[in-house]
Design a protein that fits this description.
single chain, alpha+beta, 2 domains, 3-stranded antiparallel β-sheet, 5 helices, transmembrane, membrane, DUF2812
Amino acid sequence: MINKWKEMMKGLKFIVSNPFIFAEKRSVDKFEELAEEGWQIKKIWLGGFMYILEEVEPKSISYYFDSQPNPTEQYYRVFYNAGWKLVDTSNSLHLFFAPAGTTLLERNSEKLQTRFRSESSYFGKYSIGIFIAILFVFLGWVFIEWNIVRNLLIGVLSILIIGFSVTFTPYAIYKWRIQKLRNNDRN
């Protein structure tokens, strides 16, 4: 059984990478370096946090991320006609590749801003809700004098703080990306 597993995993590599919203350029550069070393992305895993790579002949290729919530055949055809092939899709994140030097497609800034606004709104609502819960739990911890309940509230507070950081971080990054797109549009 173990030998079968090893044989199946031979020629595959798993990497953790920054997701699309955090560091798109850094991820693309890393993937292009790996392709020159003989590792090409086969699959996006866990929403862009992990990637499965397969061993191939080393070559110079370019990667390109795009975000499209409901892609149509026309959407994929535009990329194909420009020389880009789809690697994989995860939710609304699409990764394409092409020979090095292939012209990048111009992103529709307004559409991307709308998408980022929608995502930031989603995370923002949860951040506000969790923040309010943190305040109530903290007030309970301050005013309740039973030690066992206070210890329980500390545990709940810790979990809520983790939840807040997990929802607020993407919210802040989406807001930052929207501002960056606006600034690029002005220039």
